[in-house]
User: What shape does this take?
Amino acid sequence: MPHIGTMIFTLSAIAMFLVSSALETDASMKRKRLLVVDYTQGFRHTEGIEAGEPVLQAMGEKSGAFSVDYCRTAEDVKEMLTPEHLKKYDGIIFLNTTGDLGIPDLNAFLKWIKEGHAFIGMHSATDTYRDPAHAAYIDMIGGEFRTHHNQCEVKPVHDDPQHPAVKPIPADFKITDEIYLFTKTDRKKLHVLLSTPQCPPDGSEEAGKPGDYLLAWCKMYGKGRVFYSAFGHRKDVWDNEVIQRHMLGGIEWALGQVKGDSAPSSSSD
Assistant: This one.
């Protein structure tokens, strides 16, 4: 027979383990806090920004996954995108940002992401910090806007059908939006989620040319998780329930609330 003291100690240890596990589960499932940045220093996607703000807020409230605060002005950027202020947040969304935002210390900001925070980029987040002096930002987000042609309809290829950002999208789904063409996208560094195998059929000289045109991807950045979706130029895109579920899945993945692969899509060999 085990000694009564040993049994009590063992039961106590088990109870403590169960309580600890429950607390860890609650911590991973609790509502996260995101800062939405939609300040611009280049072209301003007014329609997409004005549509995206309330959709993101409603998405967070309905799902219970996150709450949002907003960073809208140059003064907000100087005050809110500092290491001290960012301590309040689990991650950040660049909602159709453009240009050099004036982040007080861009390297410190990137370090904050790398330490284990979420970065979510929407549409023109890849048209942000494109100066060669800020190459570290492009390396973080995983691609750089090159150009776009006329807005057109695309049928996305599901590169990872099981990822939470792709799973909600029907196989026959089509969407009309401003489709970006990128430089510096590399499947050896990115986990591609959505793509199209030919240049979007928009009437330009490039239209229909075969290639690898990415629409959404994710990646690890140190301990941080990066999710990018090229959608979001138009109000009707933000209002589309399929796109909303796509974005929510990507946000929840970036926050570590749901599981999904992030391994590069191609071998580095």
